[in-house]
Amino acid sequence: MRIVLVGPPGAGKGTQAAYLAKNLSIPHISTGDLFRANISQGTELGKQAKAYMDAGDLVPDEVTIGMAEDRLDQSDAAGGFLLDGFPRNVGQAQALDAYLAAHGIRLDGVLDLEVPEDEVVKRIAGRRVCRNDSAHVFHVEYNQPEAAGVCDVCGGELYQRPDDAEDKVRNRLDVYHRETEPIIDYYKQQGLVQTIPALGKVAEVTQRAMDALRREA
Prior knowledge:
Elements: E1 2-6, H1 13-24, E2 28-30, H2 31-41, H3 44-54, H4 61-72, E3 81-84, H5 90-102, E4 109-114, H6 117-125, E5 127-130, E6 137-139, E7 158-159, H7 166-180, H8 182-188, E8 193-197, H9 202-216
Parallel strand pairs: 1-3, 1-4, 2-3, 4-8
Antiparallel strand pairs: 5-6, 5-7
Helix pairs in contact: 1-9, 2-3, 2-4, 3-4, 4-5, 6-7
EC number: 2.7.4.3
Protein name: Adenylate kinase
Region (NMP): 30-59
């Protein structure tokens, strides 16, 4: 299957993408992974992206699109893929459609993870990360440490990352509504969108998504 996963920050896209890709035996292709791979490998696109990022500028669509197309050209994506974080706007969605059409294929579905905005803010602003190891993540409500402010794993100090502050989260949501949310309407016009309520346990959300994909098949 060829799937695009959409949803606001804090909707659980990364988590769901990993589970869905495993269940469907297709590669999970995230924008973050594309950037990290191209930069670490020193590709021409990676060098271009790094130059923009080092200057504090947004990476242009054509660079991101180029990375995505190169990744989709790899053999493991021939039988299907799950895109997470790409396309990020209508221009990128149109470029993806053009790429797929040129290869005689099309998307099978677009999964829209739906989470109330207040819940998104609560999820992200409540995160606390260990200063010693950022892989140790807790939450003031959903995953509390045994001792307030102390990492259960290594005893390091837990803190709120600057980007997780409520005002920054709401700004990220504004950007999502302005730039990314329009692709949902774009794909609805193609009859591809399945809206997935993303509240509840991870396994429950995954099952809803799998059920939606079976209906599409």
